[in-house]
Each structure stands twice: as structure tokens, then as C-alpha cells.
Amino acid sequence: MSPLKNIKKDVNSVLSAIPDSEIDRDYYVGKIKKYSTECGCSMGAVFLFAAAGISLYWLFIHVGWKNIHLLNFLWQGCLFVFLSALLGKALGITIARIKLRMLYYSLIKKYKYHVNMYKMD
After folding, report:
1. Torsional sign, CA 29, 31, 34, 38
2. In which band, very low, low, confident or very high, does the pLDDT at 49 lie, cut at 50, 70 and 90?
3. Where are the domains of the chain?
């Protein structure tokens, strides 16, 4: 079982310990859905556009048109943009997993849920 499935299972077990009358329950369910289904696309898009902007800045402002081999710049720029988008996607997924784990520990602390650290699955 993947670590993300383990934490989702743990969060759901803590969430089931919250009384149904608790107003915060829907809020936490929404947060869990948001963090557990995050694919990193929004952070990847931010990194993609930032890398494209940096590449265009490098081309027009820093290097200029005089001493540039356009084909060489194009493949290096595309590689930079692609790798930046991948880095952003991975960073977005990692941040969502960290937020899900932090939510799990905050729920444990808030609702005094007993966690068996030596459970066997």
C-alpha cells in the first residue's frame, strides 16, 4: 500500500472519531479531498510560465539577437521550461502530501484521538 493511501486511511479513521454534530467536519472533509487529490498541475503551470518568462528575458534582454544560435537556444529553452514544469508538479504534490499529514496531526491533537503507533496492517 502506498504511503498516500496509508495517510488517507489514517485521516479517515481520525475523521470518523469526530462527532457528526461537529460543524468543522465538512470543512475537514473538503480539505482532505483537496489535499489527497492534488495532482500538482497548478504549481507545474506556475513554474512553466515562470520558466518561459525567464527564457524570454534571457533571449531579449540579456543575450540579445546578435550572438545567438537560435536552434541551440530553442532546444535549451524548451528543456529548461519542461524540467521546470516537472519540478513544479513534483513540488505541488509534495506540498499537498505535507499539508495532508499536518492536517492529520492537527486533527489528532484537536480531537484527542488515540493513535496506536505499533499497529499491524
Report:
1. negative
2. very high
3. 3-111
Alpha carbon distance 117, 28 (integer Å): 23
- Residue with C-alpha cell 482532505? 32
Sign of the dihedral through C-alpha 10, 13, 18, 23 = positive
Alpha helix segments (H runs only) across the chain: 3-16, 24-36, 41-57, 70-111
Determine how many CB atoms are found less than 10 A away from the CB of residue 45: 14
Query: What does the pLDDT look like over 21-33, one tens digit per residue?
Result: 666 777 877 888 8
Indicate the angle between helix axes 24-36 and 70-111, nearest 10 degrees.
150
Q: What is this structure's pTM?
A: 0.74
Place of cell 527564457: 55
